[in-house]
């Protein structure tokens, strides 16, 4: 039986959502942040200690893109990936990898710079702010061309990989998406999916805001820091 280890309010939501979309059997283990990073039980599973982690027989593996690919091909008969014979195969590959190769690092970098207290008038901060805008605009422009999903007409794992950064991740870095008029309805389409709703219930993330509105959501990090000081 496949086991999925999910840290609440984290990028492991992708893997729970994926399993729900595929309709496969899996055992879900839930963890809470302690207070911000992984709790010890999750840290003990891999050398890096981050979520997601999956276990399947003798295998224990992290990295959300690797976990997604593994589950799709080992347990999902390749569903939610496009095969090389599909006309949109390259789009699928591109957007699947863009999520963790460019977009997620783009937001994480801003989070790191801000957490380190960098002056926002600093040239490095300005350059990476502009780069993040490019990353988001790139998605927005692609959706504006009539692409319902990132790989075209079909919903795929490329969407599952991307939505975390445009939603839940915004609670760690208060990203304002108001300017991206095609991303917002795209997010709405994703969260309306029955499998997404099931992931939220099963992962006990349903009390957490969806974060699909334009204005920047409240910063979780600040909240944790404030409650630690109180
Ligand atoms: N590139 C990795 C990143 C994993 C990662 O940083 N996960 C975060 C959750 S968003 C985490 O586990 N944070 C807790 C910690 O670092 O202790 C992936 O895609 O799985």
TrEMBL record:
GO terms for molecular function: transferase activity. Coiled coil: none annotated. Residues 1-79 form the GST N-terminal domain. Keywords: Transferase. CDD domains: GST_N_GTT1_like. Gene3D superfamilies: 1.20.1050.10, Glutaredoxin. This is Glutathione S-transferase. It comes from Aureobasidium namibiae CBS 147.97.
């Amino acid at each position: 039986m496949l086991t999925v280890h999910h840290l609440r309010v984290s990028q492991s939501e992708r893997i729970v959502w994926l399993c729900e979309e595929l309709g496969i059997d899996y055992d879900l283990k839930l963890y809470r942040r302690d207070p911000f990073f992984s709790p010890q039980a999750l840290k003990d599973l891999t050398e890096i200690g981050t979520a997601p982690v999956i276990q399947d027989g003798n295998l224990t593996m992290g990295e959300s893109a690797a976990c997604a690919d593994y589950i799709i091909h080992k347990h999902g008969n390749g569903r939610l990936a496009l095969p090389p014979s599909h006309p949109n195969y390259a789009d699928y590959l591109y957007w699947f990898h863009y999520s963790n190769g460019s977009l997620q690092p783009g937001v994480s970098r801003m989070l790191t710079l801000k957490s380190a207290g960098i002056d926002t008038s600093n040239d490095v901060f300005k350059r990476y702010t502009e780069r993040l805008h490019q990353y988001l605009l790139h998605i927005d422009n692609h959706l504006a061309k009539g692409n319902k999903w990132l790989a075209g007409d079909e919903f795929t794992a490329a969407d599952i990989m991307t939505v975390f950064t445009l939603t839940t991740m915004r609670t760690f870095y208060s990203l304002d998406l108001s300017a991206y008029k095609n991303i917002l309805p795209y997010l709405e389409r994703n969260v309306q999916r029955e499998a997404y709703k099931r992931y939220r219930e099963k992962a006990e993330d349903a009390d957490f805001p969806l974060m699909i509105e334009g204005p920047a959501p409240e910063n979780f990090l600040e909240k944790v820091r404030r409650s630690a000081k109180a």
